[in-house]
Amino acid sequence: MKLEQKFMDEMIAHAKEDAPIECCGIIAGEDGRAVKLFRARNSEASPYRYSVDSDDLFRIYREAEDNEWSFLAIYHSHTASEAYPSPTDIRLAFWPESYYVLVSLEDAENPVVRAFRILDGEVNEEEIEAG
Amino acid sequence: MAVEVKLAANLQKLVGGQKSVSVEGATVGEVLDDLESKHPGIKETIMADGAIHRFVNIYLNDEDIRFLKQLDTQLSEGDVLSVLPALAGGTA
User: Domain A2-130 is of which CATH architecture?
Assistant: First the structure.
């Protein structure tokens, strides 16, 4: 997937600001190109779980729909583990057309961002082309 | 009465790939029953143990029905229900 550096930076900044709880958000896109990043509240407010706040989800969904954007990517952070979908992440991946992007702060000095497709329990990594 | 049900993400495949369907019912519960009769199998994805599934959100116009009367929420002609799977996960 192609993702401008500013979106990478914004996800990392969000992850750091919300640590130690997991952050989450949505990147809306048009024709596969990211157009807007939406931060969302994590209603779980937990270091181990995330759930996009239901009001935030609807607000973002509607703005995306009004603009004919899709949910290009759904991102969340892992503050103390690697940037790879956990079994729970895989079980709850209900948006097969979106990339699942993980930001890891396991090495605080060197955050890692990786993208995946998750379909029917199968995880495939997609290379992020920053640019 | 007829209401529009908009479905997002993985739910569209359960209604033949449509983004929205028109169904009948005076409450959210009745609408889900009608939806199930037209598209068998969808209810077990949206509901669990007689209630809205924990990882599914249903909005009446722009309000989450969990904060209304859930399945008993009354509907009016032309209302729009949006069904969005949760965006959730976690390491524990």
Answer: 3-Layer(aba) Sandwich (3.40)
